[in-house]
Amino acid sequence: MTEQNKKSILVVDDERDIAIIIKMALQRSGWAVKEFTDPILALQHFEQHSTEYDSILSDIRMPGMNGFDLVRKVKAIKPDVKIFLMTSLEISRSELKRVLPSVKIDGLIEKPAPMRMLVSLIEKGTATKKRSYHSFEVDDDDAACLDFA
Fold first, then answer.
1. pLDDT 10s digits, 77-111
2. CATH 3.30.200.20 is the classification of domain 3-147
């Protein structure tokens, strides 16, 4: 896969170790990845480089700016960017729609989630335009991925 054909994603998580692990997993699957631990810096970067990104993966709960606010601002800049949110908190589909009523979310990932599942959800969410809902149960760490792609 050439650099020009790579899908690109901006990863935002205030926990550096998590951001790095996600970056490595996505890079192994052929993604071009830029990671940030500060959502404000991530937004500033996105404002200047929005054409370089197909997707955003952001934690919801972060200091300085939460993931919901980041997503709203990113979508105002580039409405067609795919959005994936991560959280360690339980959040229902209806709660997500209440908080972001006019913003299409392509996937919600409950942490902790196995990296293969996270990558699979993002791959699936970027490959389709049809909206659907899927939940994946994980045996050992009780994580789930909700796919709204």
1. 999 999 999 988 776 666 666 666 667 788 888 88
2. no
